[in-house]
Write a structure and sequence with these properties.
The structure holds two protein chains of two kinds. Chain A is built from nine helices and 20 strands. Chain A has helices at residues 43-51, 93-103, 108-122, 137-150, 167-184, 195-201, 219-224, 229-234, 263-272, and strands spanning 4-13, 17-27, 32-36, 58-63, 66-67, 78-81, 155-159, 187-192, 204-209, 212-217, 241-248, 251-254, 257-259, 276-281, 287-289, 293-302, 306-313, 316-323, 333-337, 343-347. By secondary structure, chain A is of the alpha+beta class. The two termini of chain A are 32 Å apart. The mean pLDDT of chain A is 92. Chain A has a six-stranded mixed sheet, with helices on both faces. A five-stranded antiparallel sheet of chain A has the order 13-12-11-14-20. In chain A, strand 16 (293-302) and strand 17 form a beta hairpin. In chain A, helix 2 (93-103) crosses helix 3. By secondary structure, chain B is mainly α. Classes of the chains: A alpha+beta, B mainly alpha. At the A-B interface, strand 6 and helix 2 of A face helix 8 and helix 9 of B.
Chain lengths: 355, 284
């Protein structure tokens, strides 16, 4: 039995709005689970249910051996970091961190020890006497984490904790959360809409859309074998190139261009039966070569370490991601090359992965 | 620059003019209350007192006749204090609890309930006179200070609820959720998180309620008994008790005595009043 198990969770509002349509997830102790998806996919609702701030219409939630579906938040042994941090403005940092312990009638000496422990861990010892209003965004974020850490909970919940920070601070705090998890090994559920946070932090990622888990797997599985077109396009930046293609027998063509496939893909295509497919290629799978698919460079976006190049080809617009600086100019004629085993095939109608 | 100065001049003269216009009655009251009977007879309303004396104040406080009894405003003043202080505190506390529930613990129908309460804010006081006296009779508190207190508490709840509810709407819901996760319950969250964040609106509501209840005449005259009349009724009786000579200096002193507590509250807490009325959501 895992540290957290979510069984067939449904949530309906007013008997008409179906927010969650049967969620099943299970993670082991110490794992870092990411719930990622566009806004309105139900990820925050699911987190609220794990936190006990919302009730599922049906299904159950288990933390460790216990069924907590109907337990109030305070009896679930969890702690949460909110998007707005939700620090108590009327209390000092130290009081904020110790509040949960105080409510649980932990003796004063132990409370003090807990505050010292987490403030040392998060380097906020010098802020303990301040009020939240006197802190910067990054400091508030640390205090919010400290408050969650103080109780040493079984389960740690994060609700888009970095979305209120500027870009630089976000990267710093992301690394800090990762380090913290490596050190404490507390089972964590983390909600985000940012695919980079999902990939960098998660042991396991659940990609959600429209109240359903589209794919549940490790970052490598999600990235290398996306279960459907939505996951393929949602994860990865720049997004995966998608070419509408027709199948005739074992041959796959797009606007007259023949697209290379592996033997396994040929077999899968035939077994699947559909003639209308989508051929997916990650930008980094495409490279420039002396021969291959011809096209014209239509845009060059240098980022420093690598360059994104958009090329108009007979099969459509393709983005290639090449290392370093690209020695070419817009309008140049180029050839693109990739290996068939880097390609992904999806059904054009249902979006499911074919091979 | 010159144009600007000209505008300033107009602005300032208008402001001073209006200020003077509104302050003249206060000036007349204050000077008249310090004059003796002789100077009153001379009849110059705007003149300064030639021999300032507090006699009229003492008379208004202790010996002036309010009908048949001649004990001044003192007993009325203390009636008002005894009635107003608990009524203000109770109605404010209940309003803050109501506001907390209606904003942070919404339940099915809570919005409708709030809409009905709003009704109470705009209902004319006269409407409740008859049914309320009926109710006070059933409860056995008619014509007593307790009955009057109860009426003021009940009548104040709609507006205090409105104040607190609208203020608490601005408190982030996540604060309440965070406290729930920390293990705090309904009352603990109210006491430790919500109330400490309510200072501005608390001051506004306290001033509002104090002013309303202290200055109320209608409920005071209708629901009080012989020995539980508030100061507004006392002042009315004092001014209407006819004697051979109209003692304007005593009337003015009495009116000032009746107005002093509300003035005092504004001076002490007025800056919070303005700040509280304009304060947005709590930061942090």
């Amino acid at each position: 039995m895992g540290a957290l198990a979510i069984r067939n969770i449904h949530k309906t509002y007013n008997e008409t709005v179906h927010i969650l349509k049967g969620i099943d997830l299970e993670i082991e102790a110490g794992e870092f689970l990411i719930l990622v998806g566009p806004s309105g996919c139900g990820k925050s609702t699911l987190l609220s249910m794990i936190a006990g701030l919302d009730q599922p219409t049906s299904g159950s939630i288990h933390i460790g051996e216990r069924d907590v579906t109907n337990l109030p938040s305070k009896d679930r042994d969890i702690a949460m970091v909110f998007q707005s941090y939700a620090l108590y403005p009327n209390m000092t940092v130290a009081q904020n961190i110790a509040f949960g312990l105080e409510i649980r009638k932990v003796p004063k000496a132990e409370r003090k020890a807990a505050v010292d422990r987490v403030s040392a861990m998060l380097q906020i010892g010098h802020l303990l006497d301040r009020k939240p209003g006197q802190l910067s965004g990054g400091q508030r974020q640390r205090v919010a984490m400290g408050r969650a850490l103080a109780r040493d909970p079984k389960l740690f919940l994060f609700d888009e904790p970095l979305s209120n920070l500027d870009a630089k601070l976000r990267v710093e705090m992301r690394a800090e959360i990762k380090l913290l998890h490596q050190r404490t090994k507390t089972t964590t559920v983390y909600v985000t809409h940012d695919q980079v946070e999902a990939m960098t932090l998660g042991d396991r990622i659940a990609v959600m859309k429209d109240g359903l888990v589209q794919q549940f797997g490790t970052p490598a599985q999600i990235y290398n074998r996306p279960a459907n077109r939505f996951v393929a396009e949602f994860i990865g930046s720049p997004a995966m190139n998608m070419i509408d293609a027709q199948r005739a027998g074992t041959a796959l063509t797009a606007q007259g261009v023949e697209l290379a496939t592996t033997e396994a893909q040929c077999t899968a295509m035939q077994a699947h039966g559909s003639a209308e497919l989508v051929y997916g290629l990650r930008p980094e799978s495409i490279s420039f070569a002396d021969h291959g698919l011809p096209g014209t460079l239509s845009m060059i976006e240098p980022t420093g370490p690598e360059t994104y190049a958009t090329v108009d080809t007979a099969a459509g617009k393709l983005t290639a991601r090449v290392p370093g600086v690209l020695q070419a100019a817009v309008g140049d004629a180029v050839h693109l090359q990739w290996s068939a085993d880097q390609s992904h095939l999806f059904d054009r109608i249902s979006g499911v992965r074919v091979g | 620059m010159k144009r600007l100065n000209f505008h300033r001049l107009i602005l300032w003269s208008m402001l001073l003019l209006f200020a003077a216009w509104f302050l003249v009655p206060l000036y007349v009251m204050l000077t008249t209350s310090l004059k003796d009977a002789e100077q009153l007879r001379a009849g110059n309303l705007l003149s300064l007192p030639t021999a300032p004396t507090l006699d009229a104040w003492f008379k208004a406080w202790e010996t002036a006749c309010t009908g048949v009894q001649c004990e001044g405003l003192k007993p009325f003043f203390w009636n008002s204090v005894v009635m107003v202080v608990p009524a203000v505190l109770l109605s404010t506390l209940i309003g803050s609890l109501n506001g907390y529930v209606l904003s942070k613990w919404k339940f099915r129908g809570s919005e409708t309930l709030f809409a009905f309460m709003l009704f109470g804010v705009f209902m004319p006081m006269q409407v409740v006179l008859l049914p309320m006296s009926q109710v006070l009779g059933w409860l056995g508190v008619a014509s007593s200070i307790w009955g009057l207190m109860l009426v003021h508490v009940v009548a104040g709840i709609p507006s205090t609820t409105l104040f607190f509810r609208n203020y608490y709407i601005g408190l982030p819901d996540e604060l309440i959720k965070a406290a729930q996760l920390d293990g705090a319950g309904f009352w603990m969250i109210f006491r430790r998180i919500v109330l400490p964040l309510s200072l501005p609106i608390l001051v506004v509501t306290l001033i509002w309620q104090f002013t309303n209840i202290w200055n109320d005449f209608l409920y005071g005259v209708v629901f009080s008994g012989a020995d539980s009349k508030p100061i507004t009724v006392g002042l009315n009786n004092l001014a209407n008790t006819s004697s051979a000579v109209k003692e304007y200096n005593v009337d003015m002193a009495a009116a000032l005595i009746a107005a002093l507590p509300t003035l005092f509250v504004y001076v002490v807490a007025g800056k919070y009043f303005v700040r509280g009325l304009t304060a947005g959501a709590v930061k942090g």
